[in-house]
Amino acid sequence: MTTIKLTRVVLALVVIGAGACNYDIANPNSPGVIGENPSASLVGSAARGILIATRQDVGDWALDGAIYGREAYRIDAADPRFVQEMMQGPLDPGSRAFGGDHWLEPYSAIRSANDLLAVIGTASSLTPEQQSAVSGFAHTLQAYNFVIILDSHNQDQIPIDVGRDASAPPAPLVTNAEAWAHVITLLDQAATELQGAAPFPFTLPSGFAGFDSTTTFLKFNRALRARVAVYRGDFAGALTYLSESFYNPAASLNLGVYMDFGTGAGDLANPLAVSATTSENFGHPSLRTQAQLQPSGALDQRFLNKLTPRDPRSGGTTDTDPIQLLTSDLGWLRYPSPNSPIPLIRNEELILLHAEASIGLSDFGTAVTDLNLIRLSSGGLAPYAGVVDQPSLLAELLYNKRYSLMYEGAHSWIDYRRYGLTSALQSFDRVGPPPDVIFPTLPIPTAETQPRT
User: Fold this and answer.
1) Distance between CA atoms of 402 and 301, rounded to whole angstroms?
2) What global pTM score does this model have?
3) Fewer Cβ close by (within 10 Å): the C or N end of the chain?
């Protein structure tokens, strides 16, 4: 089993603490279920436990989403499933590390939040305002994890009533529309809980710097709400939620909320911080061929900042006629250190969401302004000089989201899929047999469907 997948499987079984990132809990190897009337210390441990559970899937989601969205290859002779199952299928719902992935980990975080929410009202050591702050934190993290499940299981039904007793029957599956409505309810409920709440009775890790008070954490909540609104086609609503978030065209594009990693005792190193020249993780060759040029003739600066040439490697299906191989000579620079954080959401995405909502509302002038900010500041490109209509601006938007957000969380897969344009990502796909495909969704894991049969 590969390093990144093995790390995640171990984490699913053993919840680790991370003292260097303020993730430390009293007994990280056996946290248990928090009981009634918890102390402030136990509440803090439970809150950090939600973050630890959330962190389990962040790196793997960035890698797998990059493969599905043709931002990356993983060419690993020890495990050909990265270039066979994940790119040709069939996806195996019985494999937690592949077809059945991105389910257990986010649901573990959701369950951890439910455990805390069930007793926070009994915490006599906290004021009602502090209890409200904790609830707003937990509901926001639940919503974030539900979005990961929905983004990876786009056409499936999922359970949302997962706060029930373990001995109860399995939670019913609801439609994606119902599940997205639940996400919106969670985010809006959390926003109400955070407004006027007391300071958090625990310390958030450094990736939340600048968003570690209830007032600023609310801006993170509203940023997630804006993302969901765009995903659901609520463009007018998205502009409202962006105005309540940390969206700021004058601020750093990297302003945002991140998941921490580290190499301290009991911590977790960023699993994507591997050698750019010798590891199994490769950039997709289309990122070079489709990159726009700067006025100097150099490729898009985002490509140059995140990828570097390396010795080529090929992998694929060798038992077919003709042999079906994938080749890349691009290595990743995106996460140079084991301590490099992975973004959950940042200002550059918010500006692009603002552009996307403006395109959806036919406010093309505003969209061009947003796109030019990103083109110049992030890509080093000249101002947009193409046709100003909805199809042309949408293509330009998707290009910029792809290059700005590559390797950060399945953005190409999600965005091109939402507009029915995944064929634009398949210029280097193998024609088969068997042909490469971009899957619209992952299957519901076998472990989830068996109890319902």
Assistant:
1) 13
2) 0.94
3) C
